[in-house]
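A reminder from the course coordinator: this example appears on the midterm review sheet, so study it carefully.

Given structure:
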């Protein structure tokens, strides 16, 4: 039923709970897990740049790559530890871009049967303003989505 599970992590407590749930499901169904973390460069590029009018901000690609690598290591750390202790087969995937697009695209490309992710627990107003990754994945995924609180 669930041969391949896509487990999404952002390093939060809800993502860690999602990892535990995905592991439990994978053990019951003898599933393979792909752990994905997605770095969204937009917040990193939103750093204000000082200077006069007409100056074009310069963003060093090496700095963005370093931030991206650090992000993936930090967000995957706890989930990888749980996966290593579970003795399940898993692989990691790092995405770069909008999280909803990257997660849905990875799920389709890897033909997963279930996506598991944590809810960020945003209030109604904040969700209205910026949207929710879990809501976006839920509405665009080709397969079942399990959202853990």
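Designed residues:
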């Amino acid at each position: 039923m669930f041969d391949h599970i896509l487990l999404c992590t952002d390093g939060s407590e809800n993502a860690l709970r999602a990892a535990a749930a995905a592991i439990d499901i994978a053990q019951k169904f003898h599933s393979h897990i792909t752990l994905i973390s997605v770095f969204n460069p937009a917040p990193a590029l939103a750093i204000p740049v000082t200077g006069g009018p007409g100056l074009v901000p310069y963003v060093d690609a090496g700095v963005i790559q370093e931030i991206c690598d650090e992000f993936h290591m930090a967000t995957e750390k706890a989930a990888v530890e749980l996966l290593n202790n579970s003795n399940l087969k898993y692989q990691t995937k790092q995405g770069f871009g909008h999280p909803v697009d990257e997660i849905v695209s990875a799920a389709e490309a890897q033909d997963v049967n279930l996506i598991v992710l944590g809810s960020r627990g945003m209030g109604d107003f904040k969700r209205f303003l910026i949207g929710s990754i879990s809501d976006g994945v839920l509405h665009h995924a080709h397969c079942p989505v399990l959202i853990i609180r």
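The chain has a mean pLDDT of 87. Residues 125 and 131 are 9 Å apart (CA to CA).
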